[in-house]
Amino acid sequence: IECLPPDMSWLELKNLGRMYGYVAYARTFRDHSGLCGLLEFSDQDDKERAVQALHGQLLDGCPRPLRVCSGSHPKDRARPPDSGSGGSDADGP
After folding, report:
1. In whole angstroms, how far apart are CA 54 and each of 17, 57, 70, 82, 85?
2. How far apart are the first and last CA of the chain?
3. pLDDT digits (tens, 9 = 90+) for 68-92
4. How many CB atoms are closer than 10 A to CB 56?
5. 56's torsion region: left (phi>0), alpha (psi -120 to 50) or beta?
6. Which pLDDT score is estimated for 61?
7. What would the 3-class secondary structure string for 44-82 be?
8. Using 50, 70 and 90 to split pLDDT, how confident is the model at 62?
9. Would the pLDDT of 7 be above 80?
10. How far apart are CA 27 and CA 63, in angstroms?
11. Are 56 and 65 in contact (CB under 8 A)?
C-alpha cells in the first residue's frame, strides 16, 4: 500500500486492515514515494475485499489517494529491507 499518511504506525495499518478480515502480518516502511505498508491476510476473499475497498481511498492526513497492489502468495512480493521506520506483529496480537 503506497501513499499512507506520514505518521501512520504499523498497528494503525493493521487495524485498518481488520475492517476486512484477519490480518496475519502488517508493516510500514519508507521508500522513495513516502510511507508504504504491507498487509497479509489469512483469507484470499478478505484480501480481495481490502484491495477493492482501500485502493483510491483518501485517508486523513494524506493528500493523495492510496495505491494498493496485490500479490497472490507471500513469495510473490519482496518484503523491503528494514528501514527502521516500521513494525511487525510477529509476536503481537
Report:
1. 9, 5, 11, 24, 22
2. 21
3. 988 754 444 444 444 444 444 444 4
4. 10
5. left
6. 83
7. HHHHHHHHHHHCCCCCCCCCCCCECCCCCCHHHCCCCCC
8. confident
9. yes
10. 21
11. yes
Task: Show Cβ contacts of residue 79 under 8 Å, excluding neighbours closer than 6 positions.
Answer: 27, 38
pLDDT, tens digit, for every residue of 18-61? Answer: 999 999 999 999 998 899 999 999 999 999 999 999 999 999 88
Look up the pTM and report it.
0.74
Residue type, 40: E
Beta bridge partners of 16: none
Report CA Rg, the chain: 12
